[in-house]
Amino acid sequence: MDIQYYGANCVRLETKNAVVVVDDNLAALGLKSITKSGDIALATSGIVALLKVDTKITIATPGEYEVSGVSIQGIAARAHMDEEGALTATMFKIVTDDLRVAVVGHIYPELNDKQLEALGTVDVLLIPVGGNGYTLDSIGALKLIKKIEPKVVVPTHYAEKSVNYEVPQQPLEEAIKGLAMEPKETVAKLKAKSGDLGDVSQLIVLENQS
After folding, report:
1. CB of 7 within 8 A of CB of 26?
2. In 3-state terms, what secondary structure has residue 137?
3. How far is CA 40 from CA 72, 119, 184, in A?
C-alpha cells in the first residue's frame, strides 16, 4: 500500500485495486480537493465535504464494508469536542494486502476496551497532533499510541503555511517533542508492507503533497 499526506487530516491510500481518500475537506482549507471519480471516500467527522466527483462509495458512519478488495471498519468514537457519552466521530480501520491501517481523526484521547478490540492489531496509525482544543495534541496522541501500539505512527493535522485552519495548530516540531519519538525518516510516500515494518513503534513523517 502507498500512503500519501495532503495536509490537515487528509490522506490517500492506494492499493492494487483501489484508492481510498480520508477526510478530503481540503477545498475548505485553501487547498485543492484530491478525490477523483471512482475513489473510496471516508470521513471521520461525520461531515462529508461536497465532493464534485462520483465516488465509488462515501462512508462517514460506523459499520463494516468490503469494497474493491479493501476491508473497511468504521468504529464509533467520542469526538474531541463531544460531551461525555456522545459518539459523533468515526475511526476507520482499513485492511488490504495483509496491511492494517487506522485513521482515528479528531477523537477524545480515551478509548474503551471495546474500541481497542475493534481496532485490534494496527500496522500504521495516522493520528492528528495539532491540538489547541480542536484535535489531539501530542500528549493525547501519545496516550493513544501507547494503547494501540502501532508499528508505524504518521502525524497529521499540524500547522503548515499552506493550510488555512479554523483553529491555529501546533507546529510539527513542537508536537514531535511532546511525542518523545525521533522521526525515523521523512518521505513523500510511505510504501508500507506488513512484513517490513518491524515490531517497535517508529515515527515517519510524510511530506505534504498538496
Report:
1. yes
2. coil
3. 10, 20, 30
